[in-house]
Protein backbone atom coordinates (compact mmCIF):
# COMPACT_ATOMS: atom_id res chain seq x y z
CA UNK A 1 0.00 0.00 0.00
CA UNK A 2 2.86 2.37 0.82
CA UNK A 3 5.61 1.17 -1.52
CA UNK A 4 5.10 3.28 -4.70
CA UNK A 5 6.15 6.43 -2.84
CA UNK A 6 8.90 4.92 -0.68
CA UNK A 7 10.44 2.56 -3.22
CA UNK A 8 13.18 4.99 -4.19
CA UNK A 9 11.93 5.26 -7.76
CA UNK A 10 10.98 8.57 -9.30
CA UNK A 11 7.38 9.54 -8.70
CA UNK A 12 6.03 10.44 -12.14
CA UNK A 13 2.34 9.58 -11.89
CA UNK A 14 1.20 13.16 -11.32
CA UNK A 15 3.08 14.45 -14.35
CA UNK A 16 1.28 12.59 -17.11
CA UNK A 17 -1.37 14.67 -18.84
CA UNK A 18 -3.66 13.61 -21.64
CA UNK A 19 -5.74 15.94 -23.79
CA UNK A 20 -9.42 15.33 -22.97
CA UNK A 21 -11.32 13.43 -25.62
CA UNK A 22 -13.98 15.72 -27.17
CA UNK A 23 -17.23 13.98 -26.28
CA UNK A 24 -20.05 15.59 -28.23
CA UNK A 25 -23.06 17.05 -26.43
CA UNK A 26 -25.46 14.37 -27.65
CA UNK A 27 -23.22 11.73 -26.02
CA UNK A 28 -22.79 13.40 -22.63
CA UNK A 29 -26.49 14.29 -22.65
CA UNK A 30 -27.32 10.66 -23.50
CA UNK A 31 -29.56 11.48 -26.44
CA UNK A 32 -31.57 14.21 -24.75
CA UNK A 33 -32.12 17.36 -26.81
CA UNK A 34 -30.88 20.85 -26.02
CA UNK A 35 -33.31 22.85 -23.92
CA UNK A 36 -35.08 25.57 -25.89
CA UNK A 37 -33.47 28.32 -23.77
CA UNK A 38 -29.93 27.18 -24.50
CA UNK A 39 -28.22 29.72 -26.79
CA UNK A 40 -25.48 27.35 -27.94
CA UNK A 41 -28.19 25.05 -29.27
CA UNK A 42 -28.18 27.21 -32.39
CA UNK A 43 -24.73 25.87 -33.27
CA UNK A 44 -24.13 22.49 -34.90
CA UNK A 45 -23.64 20.01 -32.06
CA UNK A 46 -20.12 19.09 -33.23
CA UNK A 47 -19.03 22.74 -32.80
CA UNK A 48 -20.31 23.16 -29.25
CA UNK A 49 -17.32 21.34 -27.73
CA UNK A 50 -14.89 23.66 -29.49
CA UNK A 51 -16.67 26.66 -27.97
CA UNK A 52 -16.62 25.13 -24.49
CA UNK A 53 -12.87 24.52 -24.77
CA UNK A 54 -12.39 28.30 -24.98
CA UNK A 55 -14.09 28.91 -21.62
CA UNK A 56 -11.53 29.39 -18.84
CA UNK A 57 -11.71 27.32 -15.66
CA UNK A 58 -13.09 30.14 -13.52
CA UNK A 59 -15.96 30.83 -15.90
CA UNK A 60 -16.64 27.12 -16.29
CA UNK A 61 -18.10 27.04 -12.78
CA UNK A 62 -20.36 29.97 -13.60
CA UNK A 63 -21.46 28.30 -16.82
CA UNK A 64 -22.60 25.27 -14.83
CA UNK A 65 -25.10 27.45 -12.95
CA UNK A 66 -26.97 28.64 -16.06
CA UNK A 67 -29.10 25.55 -16.73
CA UNK A 68 -28.93 21.77 -16.97
CA UNK A 69 -27.38 21.78 -20.47
CA UNK A 70 -24.64 24.20 -19.43
CA UNK A 71 -23.99 22.17 -16.29
CA UNK A 72 -23.46 19.04 -18.36
CA UNK A 73 -21.21 20.88 -20.80
CA UNK A 74 -19.10 22.17 -17.91
CA UNK A 75 -18.90 18.63 -16.55
CA UNK A 76 -17.69 17.38 -19.93
CA UNK A 77 -14.47 19.30 -19.31
CA UNK A 78 -14.27 19.05 -15.54
CA UNK A 79 -14.72 15.28 -15.48
CA UNK A 80 -13.34 14.17 -18.86
CA UNK A 81 -10.42 12.67 -16.94
CA UNK A 82 -10.77 11.82 -13.26
CA UNK A 83 -7.96 10.81 -10.91
CA UNK A 84 -8.92 8.38 -8.18
CA UNK A 85 -5.95 9.00 -5.90
CA UNK A 86 -7.64 8.54 -2.50
CA UNK A 87 -8.02 12.29 -2.01
CA UNK A 88 -11.18 13.81 -0.52
CA UNK A 89 -12.18 14.98 -4.00
CA UNK A 90 -11.76 11.54 -5.56
CA UNK A 91 -13.69 9.87 -2.74
CA UNK A 92 -16.48 12.40 -3.28
CA UNK A 93 -16.58 11.76 -7.04
CA UNK A 94 -16.54 8.01 -6.43
CA UNK A 95 -19.51 8.40 -4.07
CA UNK A 96 -21.48 10.19 -6.80
CA UNK A 97 -20.61 7.47 -9.32
CA UNK A 98 -21.71 4.77 -6.87
CA UNK A 99 -25.09 6.50 -6.51
CA UNK A 100 -25.39 6.78 -10.30
CA UNK A 101 -24.50 3.10 -10.59
CA UNK A 102 -27.24 2.12 -8.13
CA UNK A 103 -29.76 4.36 -9.88
CA UNK A 104 -28.99 2.90 -13.31
CA UNK A 105 -29.13 -0.66 -12.01
CA UNK A 106 -32.64 0.02 -10.68
CA UNK A 107 -33.83 1.57 -13.95
CA UNK A 108 -32.32 -0.86 -16.45
CA UNK A 109 -29.26 1.25 -17.24
CA UNK A 110 -31.13 4.51 -17.73
CA UNK A 111 -31.06 7.64 -15.59
CA UNK A 112 -33.64 10.36 -15.09
CA UNK A 113 -30.97 12.99 -14.38
CA UNK A 114 -27.86 14.02 -16.28
CA UNK A 115 -24.86 12.13 -14.97
CA UNK A 116 -21.18 12.70 -14.31
CA UNK A 117 -20.43 9.17 -15.50
CA UNK A 118 -21.53 10.04 -19.04
CA UNK A 119 -18.84 12.76 -19.19
CA UNK A 120 -15.90 10.54 -18.26
CA UNK A 121 -13.63 9.16 -20.98
CA UNK A 122 -10.54 8.38 -18.85
CA UNK A 123 -10.00 7.20 -15.28
CA UNK A 124 -6.60 7.19 -13.60
CA UNK A 125 -6.44 4.94 -10.52
CA UNK A 126 -3.44 5.26 -8.23
CA UNK A 127 -2.62 4.72 -4.58
CA UNK A 128 -0.90 7.87 -3.39
CA UNK A 129 0.77 6.90 -0.08
CA UNK A 130 0.77 10.55 0.99
CA UNK A 131 -3.04 10.42 1.04
CA UNK A 132 -2.99 7.21 3.06
CA UNK A 133 -0.52 8.71 5.53
CA UNK A 134 -2.64 11.83 5.92
CA UNK A 135 -5.96 9.99 6.25
CA UNK A 136 -4.92 7.07 8.47
CA UNK A 137 -1.70 8.24 10.19
CA UNK A 138 0.20 5.26 8.80
CA UNK A 139 3.72 5.76 7.49
CA UNK A 140 7.10 4.12 7.05
CA UNK A 141 9.04 6.07 9.64
CA UNK A 142 10.92 5.55 12.89
CA UNK A 143 8.30 7.64 14.67
CA UNK A 144 5.50 5.34 13.54
CA UNK A 145 7.44 2.18 14.41
CA UNK A 146 8.13 3.62 17.87
CA UNK A 147 4.41 3.51 18.66
CA UNK A 148 2.98 0.66 20.70
CA UNK A 149 2.28 -2.38 18.54
CA UNK A 150 -1.45 -2.33 19.35
CA UNK A 151 -1.72 1.24 18.08
CA UNK A 152 0.30 0.46 14.94
CA UNK A 153 -1.72 -2.64 14.16
CA UNK A 154 -5.02 -0.86 14.72
CA UNK A 155 -4.06 1.95 12.33
CA UNK A 156 -2.72 -0.42 9.69
CA UNK A 157 -5.78 -2.67 9.88
CA UNK A 158 -8.12 0.31 9.64
CA UNK A 159 -6.19 1.72 6.66
CA UNK A 160 -6.26 -1.61 4.82
CA UNK A 161 -9.94 -2.12 5.53
CA UNK A 162 -10.88 1.37 4.40
CA UNK A 163 -8.70 1.24 1.30
CA UNK A 164 -9.24 -2.32 0.05
CA UNK A 165 -12.71 -3.18 1.36
CA UNK A 166 -14.37 0.18 0.76
CA UNK A 167 -12.40 2.32 -1.71
CA UNK A 168 -11.10 -0.33 -4.13
CA UNK A 169 -14.35 -2.30 -3.93
CA UNK A 170 -16.32 0.80 -4.92
CA UNK A 171 -13.99 1.45 -7.86
CA UNK A 172 -14.46 -2.15 -8.99
CA UNK A 173 -18.23 -1.82 -8.68
CA UNK A 174 -18.34 1.32 -10.83
CA UNK A 175 -16.06 -0.20 -13.48
CA UNK A 176 -17.94 -3.50 -13.56
CA UNK A 177 -21.28 -1.87 -14.41
CA UNK A 178 -20.41 -0.41 -17.79
CA UNK A 179 -23.61 1.62 -18.14
CA UNK A 180 -22.36 3.89 -15.36
CA UNK A 181 -19.47 4.94 -17.62
CA UNK A 182 -20.93 4.63 -21.13
CA UNK A 183 -18.11 6.59 -22.82
CA UNK A 184 -15.08 5.36 -20.89
CA UNK A 185 -12.23 4.93 -23.39
CA UNK A 186 -9.15 4.61 -21.20
CA UNK A 187 -8.30 3.22 -17.75
CA UNK A 188 -4.83 3.83 -16.33
CA UNK A 189 -3.84 1.92 -13.19
CA UNK A 190 -0.60 2.87 -11.45
CA UNK A 191 1.19 -0.08 -9.86
CA UNK A 192 4.63 1.47 -9.65
CA UNK A 193 4.31 2.20 -13.38
CA UNK A 194 1.27 3.00 -15.52
CA UNK A 195 -0.78 0.10 -16.88
CA UNK A 196 -3.19 1.33 -19.55
CA UNK A 197 -6.33 -0.67 -20.24
CA UNK A 198 -8.27 0.38 -23.38
CA UNK A 199 -12.08 0.11 -23.34
Segments where pLDDT lies below 50 for 5+ residues? Answer: 3-11
The best one-word shape is: elongated
Main beta-sheet strand count, sense and barrel state: 4 strands, mixed
Q: Helical percent range?
A: 40-55%
Strand content: 5-15%
**N-end to C-end Cα span:** 26 Å
Note the run of SSEs as H and E: HHHHHEHEHHHEE
Q: Total helix count?
A: 9
InterPro entries: F-box-like_dom_sf (IPR036047), F-box_dom (IPR001810)
Protein name: F-box domain-containing protein
Structural features, described:
With 199 residues, the protein is α/β, with parallel strands linked by helices. It folds into 2 domains: 1-11 and 80-199, no CATH class; 22-79, no CATH class. It contains 9 helices and 4 strands; from the N terminus they run αααααβαβαααββ. A 4-stranded mixed β-sheet has the order 1-2-3-4. Strand 3 and strand 4 (194-198) form a beta hairpin. Helix 6 (88-106) crosses helix 9. 20% of the residues are buried. Mean pLDDT is 80; it is low at 3-11.
